[in-house]
Amino acid sequence: MTISTDREQQIQHLRELIADINCGMLTTIDQNGCLHSCPMYKSGDISTDGAIWFFTSANTQKADDIKRNQQVNVSFTSADQQRYVSVSGTAELIKDLKKMQEQWQPELQTWLPKGLDEPNLVLLKVNIHKVDYWDSPSSIHPQTIGV
To answer: The pTM is what?
Structure first.
């Protein structure tokens, strides 16, 4: 029971750290072994199983990268609050209409004008393994959450 409670507390702490940060930089590993980053709008809150969800198209470089290598990183920044969060984990692409309906937010219409009818639309699920964060202007040492 302690492990479950600790995990829930860690996930809740991460939720609080990124609650007011909607966009993150997703970094994947491309076919040449190079890092590739792009901005992503997070969809909803971190799920109870410790995952962050995004919408994307199945025919993008990031989708191809994830099919080859599931290791990813998502960085969230709130410079005015001097808060920096780095989430590492594994990613997977999911085509599940029910889950997509649960995760959909009106703000996503900006990037996905056809909504859930967008061609090749998939969910990108980042399963969180580790979080490093800096959330204080006076602290130069990162804190770590192992999820």
So the answer is: 0.86
